[in-house]
């Protein structure tokens, strides 16, 4: 067993767990971390990056199990709040699933480059600043208060996350705030929306790339990444909910802008970080 590879998998899992639910583009950070550490082969690393996101989303299911169960059963029993949340998650997930399956690969081919990622980071950061400086009227203080119309619009906004650098969390959280959700309810709804999207993408990628990971060592490395991402994501989720209860997202906006500018600088000058 390659202990160095295991340690790199742990680092990747921590990066995933910390960045998945922050509005700063987790995929971009994973790709950067992978390149800096020279993590695995290109094919195996690509599968790993998608698959370990399921560890982070498992943390959401663990943390919010009772509310998610209430949403699932509410659709059947008709309990108002559970039914509203359950249907909201379903309708908001449909656009990205449909568009992702039909145009996802095309978008990835055309826009998966440094400049596109940098622009996505900068534009997203500027939008966050604008939203924080022009607060919208809150009509959904809790995630169970979300309306069908709000869920549909957030689902359409989530499609923007197909563009590298945009951030699924960033798009859904800020979109939710613009539509009247509180920071807390927008953040939690973003958590929940990741469940069908990330699990579906992870399982699909594992199936399509089933020949890439071979042998017990490869699967052990993936397992380590999954477990690490689960633990780190669980800690991040709890910290983020406490954070948004008292603070805004401005620090993430400036981080996005600074990161985007640095990427553009290196892209246009040809300099290398490593």
Automatic annotation (TrEMBL):
Keywords, sorted A to Z: Antibiotic resistance, Cell inner membrane, Cell membrane, Cell shape, Cell wall biogenesis/degradation, Hydrolase, Membrane, Peptidoglycan synthesis, Transmembrane, Transmembrane helix
This enzyme's EC code(s): 3.6.1.27
Membrane topology: Multi-pass membrane protein
GO MF annotation list: undecaprenyl-diphosphatase activity
Family note: Belongs to the UppP family.
Protein name (database record): Undecaprenyl-diphosphatase
Job of this protein: Catalyzes the dephosphorylation of undecaprenyl diphosphate (UPP). Confers resistance to bacitracin.
NCBIfam families per record: PRK00281.1-2, PRK00281.1-4, undec_PP_bacA
Transmembrane feature ranges: 6-33, 45-65, 85-103, 110-131, 151-177, 189-207, 219-241, 253-271
């Amino acid at each position: 067993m390659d202990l160095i590879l295991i340690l790199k998998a742990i680092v990747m899992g921590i990066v995933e767990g910390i960045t998945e639910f922050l509005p700063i583009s987790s995929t971009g950070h994973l790709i950067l971390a992978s390149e800096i550490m020279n993590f695995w082969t290109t094919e195996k690393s690509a599968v790993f990056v998608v698959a370990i996101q399921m560890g982070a989303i498992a943390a959401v299911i663990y943390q919010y199990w009772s509310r998610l169960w209430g949403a699932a059963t509410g659709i059947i029993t008709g309990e108002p709040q559970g039914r509203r949340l359950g249907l909201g998650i379903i309708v908001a997930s449909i656009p990205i699933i449909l568009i992702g399956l039909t145009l996802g690969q095309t978008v990835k081919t055309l826009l998966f480059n440094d400049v596109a990622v940098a622009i996505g980071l900068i534009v997203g950061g500027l939008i966050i600043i604008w939203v924080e400086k022009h607060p919208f009227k809150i009509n959904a203080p809790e995630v169970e208060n979300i309306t069908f119309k709000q869920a549909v619009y957030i689902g359409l906004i989530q499609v923007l996350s197909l563009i590298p650098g945009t951030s699924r969390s960033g798009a859904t959280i800020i979109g939710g705030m613009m539509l009247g959700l509180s920071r807390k309810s927008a953040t939690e709804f973003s958590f929940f929306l990741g469940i069908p999207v990330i699990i579906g993408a992870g399982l699909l990628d594992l199936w399509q790339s089933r020949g890439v990971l071979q042998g017990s060592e490869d699967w052990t490395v993936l397992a380590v990444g999954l477990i690490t991402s689960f633990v780190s994501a669980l800690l991040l989720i709890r910290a983020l909910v406490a954070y948004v209860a008292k603070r805004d997202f401005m620090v993430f906006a400036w981080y996005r802008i600074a990161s985007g500018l640095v990427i553009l600088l290196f892209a246009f000058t040809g300099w290398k970080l490593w």
